[in-house]
Amino acid sequence: MTAETVAEGYWVERVKGTRRLSNYWWATVVGLGGLGFLLAGISSYTQVNLLPFADPTQLIFMPQGLVMAAYGVAGIGLSVFLWLLIWWDVGGGFNEYNKQTNQVKIFRWGWPGPNRRVELVYPLAEVQAVRVEVKDGFNPKRALYLRLRGKRDIPLTEVGRPLALSELEERAARLARFLAVPVEGL
Questions:
Q1: Side-by-side strand order, sheet with 141-148
Q2: Which residues pair with 13 in a beta bridge?
Q3: Residue 151's closest CA among 134, 129, 132?
Q4: Are 86 and 27 in contact (CB under 8 A)?
Q5: Phi then psi for 104, rounded to 5 degrees?
Q6: What is the pTM of this model?
Q7: Could you tell me the maximum CA-CA distance found in the chain, to the nearest angstrom?
């Protein structure tokens, strides 16, 4: 989570979605690589060098040039997909805890379509605890969840970015103190 706003009885945490520096980096790198492969395949077919740093006209079109062109199309397609994810900011949103309206609002942007806006609103009285999940190993997981009475746990942290254990504990304690509920899982 990138930013938070805390006022008397009101707390908002911004959740970063796909608009991350790493996603911009990979979308650009994959796009440029795909373009290079596609130009190499086209150069192999037309025997006109379209790349200033190599000479793909020396490639035989069947099968090397064709495979290079196919890799290029796949790379450009993946890059377009990544740029669309960044544009749509899938997973971005906010967590809002409001004691004045007695509500918890969890908002996220989803995939385009009729259910793009994911908005969950619950009364504060349904909040049972703040749950911490820590799983170390090859694929570590460190996440915060909001435990509601009679409902499934709602994830509060960003996907794909495990938090430092100290930061996770500190955020769980602050949120639990603000909502006046216990912390589970520590």
A1: 154-155, 141-148, 127-135, 183-184
A2: 4, 95
A3: 129
A4: yes
A5: -115, 125
A6: 0.83
A7: 72
Instruction: Report the CATH architecture of 4-17+91-184.
Output: Roll (2.30)
One digit per residue, pLDDT tens: the chain, 186 residues?
446 666 788 999 999 999 999 999 999 999 999 999 999 999 999 999 999 999 999 999 999 999 999 999 999 999 999 999 999 999 999 999 999 999 999 999 999 999 999 999 999 999 999 999 988 888 888 889 999 998 889 999 887 777 888 999 999 999 999 999 999 987
| DSSP result, 42-111 | HHHHH-----TT--GGGS-IIIIIHHHHHHHHHHHHHHHHHHHHHHHTTT-EEEEEETTTTEEEEEEE-S
Domain chopping of the chain, boundaries = 4-17+91-184, 22-88
Nearest CA to 79 out of 123, 120, 38, 116 is that of 38
